[in-house]
Amino acid sequence: MNQKDIARLAGVSSATVSRVINGDDRVAPKTYEKVKRVIDEYGYVHNAVARNLKKSSTKTIGYLVPDINNPFFTSVLVGFEEMCYAKGYDIIFENTCENVEKEKKSMQTLLSLRVDGLLAVLVDTENKLIDSFDSMGIPIVLIDRKSKNESKHDCIIIDNYDAVKKLVDHLVSLGHTDIATIYGSLDITPGEERLNGFLEAMKQAGIPVNPDYVVPGYFTVEGSYEATEQLLKLKKPPTAIITANNLSTMGAYAALVDHKIRIPQDISLVGIDDFLLAGHLTPPLTVVRRSNTTVGRIAGEMLMDRIEMGSTHKRIPQRIKVLPTELCVRESSGKPRNYTI
Amino acid sequence: MNQKDIARLAGVSSATVSRVINGDDRVAPKTYEKVKRVIDEYGYVHNAVARNLKKSSTKTIGYLVPDINNPFFTSVLVGFEEMCYAKGYDIIFENTCENVEKEKKSMQTLLSLRVDGLLAVLVDTENKLIDSFDSMGIPIVLIDRKSKNESKHDCIIIDNYDAVKKLVDHLVSLGHTDIATIYGSLDITPGEERLNGFLEAMKQAGIPVNPDYVVPGYFTVEGSYEATEQLLKLKKPPTAIITANNLSTMGAYAALVDHKIRIPQDISLVGIDDFLLAGHLTPPLTVVRRSNTTVGRIAGEMLMDRIEMGSTHKRIPQRIKVLPTELCVRESSGKPRNYTI
DNA sequence: GTGAAAGCGCTAACAC
DNA sequence: GTGTTAGCGCTTTCAC
User: Fold this and answer.
1) Is the pTM here over 0.90, yes or no?
2) Average pLDDT per block of 10 residues along chain B, 341 residues long
3) Which of A43, A53, A69 is the closest to B49 by Cβ?
4) CB A105: neighbour CB atoms within 10 A?
């Protein structure tokens, strides 16, 4: 059942059927009704595939993230979906599992599906396929992770140096000097910048960094769980731990709880990024937070803005949106203990 | 740049280009190489929109859920995505926000986008658009919520009566009789069945149900937070609370923590569905759990199974997969207090 | 092993 | 206000 069938049934041409479906004004009310009735009667469903081919636009946007298990990316998705829905775009979802090969395939698919835009958190920011998007005029908006080579793409980030500095300064003001950090993957911007931010903030505070206190957590729950255990095994464990993202915070929290370490009496725990329940754990966790749904919403705006400009969007230079972060002091940060665990 | 262009450039016909792209065997190796080279050189990207129109199949599946904020649905998505990726299907994501109107629009879109299948958690299980999927031969797999009218669609559920019974029996065996439940939305199957299951299990245990102990939490964090506060305000609060899903458990937990109620010394808390961190809260929470990613994986299998059968899939009768659940006893359930808070 | 050509279902320019 | 028609880019049957 297609427009031609409906046309025949209604005694009009298929062009008229198309006009009715697309709400073209210059259709006689009578004709309109007639066609509408036939459509309903036969349960005709418009074929967007054919339309998309004809219009070379799909009203479709790719959402490509490395790990949908990370609640951060679902919060972003919420805001993004909201914007897309408002503007009539649908989302094609790709999960790359932090895997370069899978990421390539996903981008290839998105390309062939002719998405009108792409919101991506890339594993491989030097991916050649990015160029394909560019040359086809498909706008890309990046979150959190910038392309390493000077990028032409819009992106939404936070000031990672500042975010970590807020945490360090907060701990220092409480009297801590034995501060550890569980850092993330260094080959992505947030990992690199947050670690450097830590080192820099410590330097500024005039506190020497103990190398034993700088351990990798790989931005994962498990990695940070182990990193925390490693920290606990030290002859002199730190009095405070700074984690690099929500997952790391969860891992460190879980490890401290499991080892019966009291927070913050024995060790203070603070991290970057808030998450569901973080404010209701025992104790509620001190974090630096941003609005995740806002990230998604702004990404959607930037993207659809460019999409609607058409090919001229390339004339608009790269836009970098730095979202504000806020230190949210709860109860997991306190004065340092003055004894050894 | 399309296949015709490539054909001209390589000095072959567009049919040959198509064959090369689709890995057709009967192409001379030499021709194959030549075409391949031109494709790479000019960065040609295959157009799936045109292919989909031609083949009237899109290798695309709809994933429609009421609330992507709920970690349950993202865990399901993980398993589902895994299967889809393995079989070469892409996912079109729809979030209905528990809104009947939005759900309708989403289903309409999915229909016009000609998805090959649909994994859905429906708000309105009597939705007329379901019939459109049926008549177009597009298979649907339902999770958790069955159609109320005798449904023809495959679905993946758990035995809600049994799940709640496990919780009730566990509490009873610890000595509880003042058991409360924070139940969910009654117009969806899990809500209805879990509440009925509670009432039935209590009856079987020979324990009268105090009407004050049966409060609605609407399957939300906020709703259950308030429900818990309501319970705490009672002259004689319950000694144990059973929550109806992961979000309710979080809400109840948060409320108890905020009101300095000790778990389980003052009140035991147990719920349906596990979630990230549930095992690492203070105390770790006792829950009835299932494998969420398995839900997604099986849904994917069932769906693609039918898709690959083509139109004959209609001859296969409805398949209902009841996934096992398991009581996971942690530390949030203990003997009842013998005093009033 | 390769090419010519029809046609998937739609939209939009053009004609009337 | 409505119809005719070309064509979006691809796959696939049929010839050779």
Assistant:
1) yes
2) 95 96 92 96 97 97 95 96 97 97 97 98 91 95 80 93 98 97 95 98 97 97 97 97 97 95 97 94 95 97 95 91 97 90 68
3) A53
4) 15
- Partners of B71 on chain A (C-beta within 8 Å) are 71, 74, 276
**Number of Cβ within a 10 Å radius of residue B331:** 15
Q: How many CB pairs under 8 A join A and B?
A: 138
Q: Does B257 touch chain A (CB under 8 A)?
A: yes
Q: Kindly state the helix (H) or strand (E) to which residue A156 belongs, with its residue range.
A: strand A154-158
In sequence order, the β-bridge partners of residue A196 are: none
Pseudo-torsion of CA A267, A272, A278, A281, nearest 10°?
Answer: 0
Do residues A325 and A166 lie in contact, with contact meaning Cβ atoms separated by under 8 Å? yes
Helix (H), strand (E) at residue B320: strand B320-323
For C9, which residue's CA is nearest its C1'? A50
Which chain A residues touch B111 with a CB distance below 8 Å? 45
Here the tokens at position B110 are: 């999915």
Is the Cβ atom of B18 within 7 Å of strand D at any atom?
A: yes
The per-residue pLDDT for B230 is 98
CB-CB under 8 Å, B95 with A92: no
- Does residue B160 contact residue B149 with C-beta atoms inside 8 Å? no
Helices (H) and strands (E) in chain B, counts: 12, 12
Mean pLDDT of A76-85: 97
d(CA B68, CA A311): 33
Say if the Cβ atoms of A254 and B277 lie within 8 Å: yes
Selected for mutation to probe chain A from B68, B113, B248, B259 (highest A CB count within 10 Å) is B113
Distance CA A306, CA B211 (A): 57
Beta-carbon contacts of residue B40 (< 8 Å; ≥ 6 apart): none
Q: For residue range A156-175, what is the model confidence (pLDDT) as tens digits?
A: 999 999 999 999 999 999 99
- pLDDT at residue A211 tops 90: yes
pLDDT in tens, A239-259: 999 999 999 999 999 999 999
| Nearest-angstrom CA–CA distance, A154 and B214 | 51
Instruction: Report yes or no: B62 and B92 within 8 Å, Cβ to Cβ.
Output: yes
Contacts of B62 (CB under 8 A, 6+ apart): B91, B92, B94, B106, B110, B113, B115, B117, B118, B119, B120
B150 secondary structure, DSSP code: P
pLDDT of the residue at A150: 63
Cα angle for residues A72, A74, A77 (degrees, 5° grid):
115
